[in-house]
Amino acid sequence: MVWFRATEPSQRQVLNDRSEVGQRLGDLLAERLRFAAPIAAAAFVMIGAIGALYVRPAERWFALAVGVTQATLLLAEAKLMRFNPVRRHAGWVAVGVGSVVVGLVGLGAWYYQEPVAAAIQFAALLLMAPVMLPWGLWRQLIWALVTLGVFLFSVGSTVGMVAGLASPWGGAVFGALLLSLWIAREVERVHREAIVYALDQQELNALYREVVEHAAEAICRTDLNGRIVFANAAAGELFGVAAEELVGRSFFDFVALHARDEVRRFYQEQYRLRLPTTFREIPFVDEKGEQKWVSQTARLQVRGTQVEGFQIVARDITDRVSIVEQLRQSEERFRSTFERAPIGIALVAPSGQFLRVNAALCEMLGYSEEELLQRDFQSITYPEDLEPDLALVAECLEGKRDTYVMEKRYVRPDGQLVLARLLVGLVRDSFGLPVHFVSLIEDITERKRLEQELRVAKGVAEEATRAKTMFLARMSHEIRTPLNGVLGMLELLQSTELTQEQRCYVETAVASGHTLLALLNDLLDLSRIETGAVELRAEPVDCRALLEEVCRSLQPKADEKQLRLELHVAREVPRTLLVDPRALRQILVNFLSNAVKFTDSGGVRVELHWAPEQGQLHLAVHDTGPGIPPSELELIFSEFAQTKEGRGLGGTGLGLAIARRLAEAMGGRVWAESELGRGSIFHALLPATLPTPEERETRELGCTIDQGRVLPEGVWRVFVIEDHPVNQLVIRRMLEKAGHEVEVANDGEAALARLQSDGARFDVLVVDLEMPNLGGLELIKRLRAQEAKGVTYARRGHRVPIVVLTAHAWTDERQRCLEAGADEHLAKPVQGETLCRALRKVIAANREAKDLPTLSKVAAVGY
Predict the structure, then answer these.
(1) 432 with 348, same domain?
(2) 837: which of 217, 291, 646, 753 lies 20 to 30 Å off by Cα?
(3) What separation in angstroms does the CA of 642 have from each of 462, 627, 810?
(4) Does residue 87 sit in the same domain as residue 180?
(5) Of 582, 578, 588, 585, the residue nearest 536 (C-alpha)
(6) For residues 169 and 513, which has the higher predicted lDDT (pLDDT)?
(7) Bridge partner residues of 316 (DSSP)
């Protein structure tokens, strides 16, 4: 507590304040009053010295010792109060005790009539009062008069009051009195300044607290152990807990566990090196467990020479760190793509100077990276291609376009030309000013050469086909002419009276003629299909009537062999559909005539169904014939190919080939199912839609089927790559019974070709390992390599799931499959439920879906 007179209530409040402001006032007084202690100490020594000159020799050392003792005590007290505020109250107690001692010594000197000792003691009382109490000017004057009066009274009893005042020791006391009055006035001035300063500090502290409490940044103070002693509202929001609840908790409890020790060492090092301020970004976990990033400035809190703790100013920078990380990842992806791209990539300045090039471009053009960066594209462009390139560049710079594509030639250092496909895009800054061009450069020299060779080969093949067609047409004409005469005469001959033997000869000749005519018609049809001369036109057709007509035309042949010929048209088939009637008729005639020809007993059944969702007409012809070996199911659709049984029954072997060509030309497909001794089923899946009234009259439709159609939600589109026909059939039927759509490829090469075609996207691949041409493992590696380059084969997501289904059941084989890129490995034989469960697992992992319903239409290819 500071002891001096305060005239205003606000001043008294400051003087009685034991807070930081009052403590600061005490520090100021101790600092400002320290000059009086040396003066008073010097006066004590001087008084003691003067007294020693005028007293008896036996008393000289006593007078000098008393003065020195008083000076030493005064200096010790002043230093104690100045440099150790914590012990200042002990200093005031020591001052009081010392004053009492001085007073008692003075009274003793008076009592024993020792004027010199009394003068020293009363001078000490005069000087210590304004320094140590401290008093104002008027109180000190009253004290001085009282002290002087007592002194004069004490010495006056011996030598008289006037003589005592005129004596040397009396003059010393009077001089001490004047000095004490000057010290008192100076002390009063210092007190007044201290009060003003303390009030100003109090206002500043109030303002500081208001600013801190309303600051947007989190502000808190901690002790040296990290214990929070103060936190503002923003700090509470950052820490996820009320500000008042933060007090007493450790700051390090909110630092992420993996960084906690490192952050603690960081601030220990700041304290050890006495670094005033540090900055650091810290991973944070608030009270709710939310992870954050905090930008934090920590300043040492110093009082005198002691460090009391840290003041921390923090800001949530989670969004900024996230953006920076996204930018870093984006830059890394760009750099990786730029460097690893299989085609040339360059960043080019608007002037044409290369700014950045990748390895593929350097290899393509035959220059090193350093050489290209010292050139512009104009210097390596073939002169004849430079002008159109510069014109397109100018249009980009003028804002007429942002990108352009062209084919141009580059000149390599050895003089060779590189034909490239160039895709260029202009990058602008936020003000719309050109920054640089991004150029994608693909070497198409080899492709152009192959395309040229293909065009030549195609031209040769087309010429050969045209020559063959012309030959067949000419031969048909030359043969039809005499054949017409032969058949006409035989018809006339049949109308005459013939013997039984003659009639048999004529009928045989007529049948042979019709066989020859059918051969000519098949050859010409096939030739027209090959050359694209057949024009397919979808028009409204009564499908039921057309099928009934074809069945009636073949009924006599069925009756001759005593076969049942049945027709079943499903109820969902509308009366009229848009389809090419000639193609539908010929496909049905070829299917049905083969069925009647190869069936000796039982019957033939024709079925027609329609799937309106897919817009497809499904024609199926069942027979009870001998069946077809699985190895020949695909062969029978080739030109001039027949089964062993078929070779003995005649025929050209063109009917099924023509049916396939017609179906494919319509956008459909045909396939066969058969079992030896159980008969066969021939299928045709053709596009057919409902016509509008206008379409019935005028519209001509080019019928196509969308092979890449979007399946209903929950349907799996499965691609089975399997070379064994029986396994193909088993896997396909398993998945179809579960309601999924299936496509089949016979080997890896066929699968790659299908996957690289437009619209080929699947939910999952089922791959065998042992296959001709390209095995399963090599197929998986190639697919994963293509996916790494950005190619996708999946209907959803980027990576298509792959399940290996093989007869190899060893553990190392499974590991080999997984390392190659497969998602699952199953060993044959496999149950349908197990297969579907494995597929559901890998598809769910790819889609991140929980429920995959199973309902679909059937689609299978590849027999």
Answers:
(1) yes
(2) 753
(3) 27, 13, 42
(4) yes
(5) 582
(6) 513
(7) 294
Residues 743 and 675 in one domain: no
Tell me the C-alpha distance between 780 and 322, whole Å.
36
686 and 817 together in one domain: no
Omega within 30 of 0 (cis) for the link into 629:
no
Q: What is the span of the domain harbouring residue 538?
A: 534-697
Same domain for 196 and 244, yes or no, is no
Question: Per the domain annotation, does 336 fall within a domain?
Answer: no
632 falls within a domain: yes
Q: Quick check: is 62 in a domain?
A: yes
**Residue-level pLDDT at 854:** 38
Which token pair is 25?
């006032």
Q: How far apart are CA 493 and CA 496, in angstroms?
A: 5
Both 774 and 832 in one domain: the answer is yes
- Residue 7 — very low, low, confident or very high, per pLDDT cuts 50/70/90? very low
423 plus 549 within the same structural domain: no
Torsion angles phi and psi, residue 749, rounded to 5: -65, -45
Q: Is 401 helix (H, G, I), strand (E, B) or coil?
A: coil
Instruction: Give me the residues paired with residue 160 across strands.
Output: none
Q: What is the CA radius of gyration of the chain?
A: 56
Percent of the chain at pLDDT above 90?
20
Task: Output the six-digit token pair for 216.
Answer: 């947007």
- The residues near 667 (Cβ < 8 Å, ≥ 6 apart) are 686, 687, 703, 704, 705
Nearest Cα to Cα of residue 787 among 769, 766, 803, 802: 802
Instruction: Name the domain boundary from 487, 505, 527.
Output: 527
Q: Output phi, psi for 827, to 5 deg.
A: -105, 140
Rounded CA-CA distance 265/246 in Å is 22
Alpha-carbon gap, residue 558 to 594, rounded angstroms = 11
Q: Residue 792 is encoded by which pair of tokens?
A: 């996708």
User: Which letter, b or e, does each residue of 130-163 get, where b requires 16 or more Cβ atoms within 10 Å of its Cβ?
Assistant: bbbbbbbbebbbebbeebbebbbebbbeeeebee
CA-to-CA separations, 259 to 237, 241, 265, 724, in angstroms, rounded: 22, 21, 10, 59
Angle at 383 between CA 379 and CA 389, to 5 degrees: 80
Angstrom distances, CA of residue 129 to CA of 31, 426, 455: 18, 89, 121
Q: Please report where in the chains the tokens 């507590």 appear, as a residue.
A: 1
The residue among 482, 507, 527 that closes a domain is 527
Number of helical (H) and strand (E) elements in the chain, helices listed first: 29, 22
Rounded Cα distance, 402 and 386, in Å = 19
E strand or H helix at 29: helix 20-32
CA distance 593 to 96: 138
In this structure, of 84-98, 171-185, 323-337, 444-458, the range with the lowest mean pLDDT score is 84-98
**CA separation for the pair 629, 459 (Å, rounded):** 38
Whether residue 631 is predicted with pLDDT greater than 90 in this model: the reply is no
Residues 65 and 141 in one domain: yes
Backbone angles phi, psi at 729, to 5 degrees: -65, -40
